[in-house]
Specification:
single chain; alpha+beta; Thrombin, subunit H; six-stranded mixed beta sheet; about 25% strand; globular; Peptidase_S1_PA_chymotrypsin
């Protein structure tokens, strides 16, 4: 295994599911990315930043809180930003749930650094396991991943890329903007995989975690993106995680091959913009509701998985999608079963959302977690009461920040 990073009716085609999702994602409009953004004049902040002292006061308090947390762990904030974060001494690697720190390093995720953070060999393993026990359905047929239509902000705006640093280098995953029930219309919450933020049993929290919705909005190839303006890489800007939460099972049992933590391989980020003051949901224009009912595969219908696969034959620059009826995958007796669909997406698609249609709504029901060495299927956790408690904690404690 590898960690990536009613009455019956005919299966929906991938294109049909995409159309329904696109309608749901763009229903609220949102801000169309500026095709030619003008830099602020010297000494002039954004209009949002000038609306009053509340935002600046909140930021000052948040900065002090972060500095205090760093100091508690013997970390000097300025030295960290100057490169001390590259020290991955295992004895000092913060790993407990309460120890997450992620100081913003302005301009770290430049477009060229984003393009280089796409080596899935460093984020996934092709190790196979024989731990497939319990109640498991036959492996699905491989469903070829299809490219998402461009511009992405018109078809799947809440989907984006997560960038982070690990001991082996700069890495990538995928993620989704999700609704915050305590802050309707102003969510700053992002759903991804646990292994995209924390190394599991043998490590700790990754560093410099940032989210870019609709990354490479126009779907340019490597040469085109290298010559593109920065806003084409990050049309809605770069959003830094100021807090992250994943399951205790992932922290305690997660591994490069998924391990016993795979059925609990999910995470929630609270993010803030590298610049600006509007919320993520306001900026992107929409977010998806998370469905924590964990419906059985016999009731769930077709699932669509979205992400940015980076392992061959993909290069991590383009958004792709798969659609399939899910089956069950059991890794060990006594553990929750996982959803499994046919899909050829590779490493880099980890953390990408799995969506189902309920009426006119698209609901997030899982995220990409693991897959086999031959890249024929993906599996993701069922999101039940335990995942809901984690999400509710993030909403209650950090959502209004």
């Amino acid at each position: 295994m590898r960690s990536l990073r009613g009455p019956s009716r005919p299966l929906l085609a991938a294109a049909s599911l995409t159309t329904a999702l696109a309608l749901a994602l763009t229903a609220c409009g949102g801000e169309t990315p500026d095709p030619d953004p003008k830099p602020a004049a010297e000494g002039q902040g954004s209009a949002e930043a000038q609306e009053g002292g509340k935002e600046s006061g909140d930021r000052a308090r948040a900065a002090k809180d972060l500095a205090d947390r760093l100091k508690k762990h013997g970390i000097d904030a300025e030295r960290w930003k100057d490169g001390a974060w590259k020290d991955w001494d295992k004895d000092d690697w913060l790993r407990e749930a309460k120890d997450f720190v992620n100081p913003v390093i302005q301009g770290l995720w430049k477009p060229e650094r984003m393009r280089g953070a796409e080596d899935p060999g460093k984020t996934v393993t092709t190790k196979d396991t024989t731990a497939d026990q319990g109640q498991t359905d036959p492996a699905p047929r491989a469903v070829p991943a299809e490219r998402e239509q461009t511009p992405y902000h018109d078809h799947a705006a809440p989907v984006g890329k997560v960038f982070f640093d690990a001991p082996a280098g700069s890495m990538v995953c995928s993620a989704t903007v999700v609704k915050d029930p305590r802050n309707p219309g102003k969510s700053n919450l992002v759903w991804t995989a646990g292994h995209c933020v924390h190394a599991g049993a043998e490590g700790g929290w990754y560093r410099n975690i940032a989210f870019v919705p609709s990354y490479n909005d126009l779907g340019k190839d490597a040469a085109g993106l290298a010559a593109a303006a920065p806003h084409e890489s990050a049309p809605y800007g770069t959003w830094w995680a100021d807090w992250a939460a994943t399951s205790n099972e992932w922290i305690g049992q997660g591994a490069g091959s998924g391990g016993a933590g795979a059925p609990y391989d999910y995470a929630v980020l609270h993010v803030k913009p590298e610049s600006g003051a509007k919320s993520l949901e306001e900026t992107v224009g929409n977010a998806l509701e998370v469905d924590f009912r964990a419906p059985g595969t016999e009731r769930i219908g077709t699932l669509g998985a979205w992400g940015y696969p980076a392992g061959p034959p993909y290069d991590g620059l383009l958004m792709h999608r798969c659609a399939d009826r899910p089956g069950r995958l059991s890794l060990a007796p006594g553990q929750p079963t996982m959803y499994r669909i046919g899909c050829t997406m590779t490493g880099g698609s980890s953390g990408g959302g799995w969506f189902r249609q309920e009426g006119k709504k698209s609901l997030l029901v899982s995220n990409t977690s693991i897959g086999p060495a031959d890249n024929t299927w993906l599996a993701g956790p069922q999101l039940g009461r335990q995942a809901e408690r984690l999400f509710d904690m993030m909403s209650q404690k950090y959502g209004g920040s």
